[in-house]
Amino acid sequence: MSCAFDLAHYADLLAAAKAGGYRFVFFDREPQAGELLLRHDVDLSLDAALELAELEAEAGAHATYFLMTQSIFYNLASREGERTLAGLRELGHRVGLHAVYPHLDLDDRFDPVVAWHNPDRDFMGEPLDGAVNVMQSGYFDPDHYRSDSNQRWRSGCPHDELAAGGFEWLQLLTHPEIWAYSGETMRETMLTMLDAERDRDLERLAEDRIDMEPLS
Ligand SMILES: [Zn+2]
Ligand SMILES: [Zn+2]
Fold first, then answer.
1. What are the CA-CA distances from residue 60 to residues 15, 54, 134 (Å)?
2. Ligand nearest 65 Cα, by number?
3. From CA 215, how far away is CA 202, in angstroms rounded?
4. Is 190 helix (H, G, I), strand (E, B) or coil?
5. Which ligand does the CA of 13 lie closest to?
């Protein structure tokens, strides 16, 4: 099996988790043996988040999507943002806050669960008032955690270990952009995403009644 960062292999990962007997759970209590926390930090693209969310729903998997209120790449308060929030919930997923330290804008759009964006070590795992920090002890420790950061698995792709039930429990962090857009490297994937975003921006311009027809 090739461990490509694409939707086909993401589906393989879900199938492996099922073969390994894992249950998909949320960040509403500490994970128990046999449980899998699917976590998605949505850094760049709402479209990618929805695409992955649909794939998961079809596979009978449930995840928690962490969305930003302070992204410079998307606007959660826009119609697209609202549509994404509603779509993720309709598909059976949960939504947490992907927060930029130290701002905690936890409002009723979010479940009480927070993942810091690009955290420093000194606050990364600190417990929070009234919300779960995904990196606090009980939800996180290095042996129960895998992440696809910058299109690289630090400890290898976990599909074999999942299929074999090798993790007691696991928090699996993946970034939808990496899987929804094609590319052998993070650079290639980001360039594919930017091409897609350009097409989306042209649609957005038309929807915003920008007339790009040449003057006749
Ligand atoms: Zn793999
Ligand atoms: Zn992030």
1. 10, 10, 23
2. 2
3. 18
4. helix
5. 1
What residue ranges in 56-213 does DSSP mark as E strands? 64-67, 94-99, 113-116, 132-133, 145-147, 170-174
**How far, in Å, CA of 80 to CA of 101, rounded?**
24
Distance, CA 186 to ligand 2 centroid (Å)? 15
Distance between Cα 206 and ligand 2 center (Å): 30
pLDDT tens sequence across 134-180: 999 999 999 999 999 999 998 899 999 999 999 999 999 999 999 99
Task: Measure the CA–CA gap between 191 and 216, rounded to whole angstroms.
Answer: 35
Non-local (6+) Cβ contacts of 132 within 8 A are 27, 28, 112, 113, 114, 139
| Over residues 185-201, mean pLDDT | 97
What is the model's pTM? Answer: 0.96
| Token pair of 212 as six digits | 């790009």
Q: Are 59 and 87 in contact (CB under 8 A)?
A: no
- Residues 98-144 have pLDDT tens digits of 999 999 989 999 999 999 999 999 999 999 999 999 999 999 999 99
Interacting residues of 152 by C-beta distance below 8 A, sequence separation 6+? 186
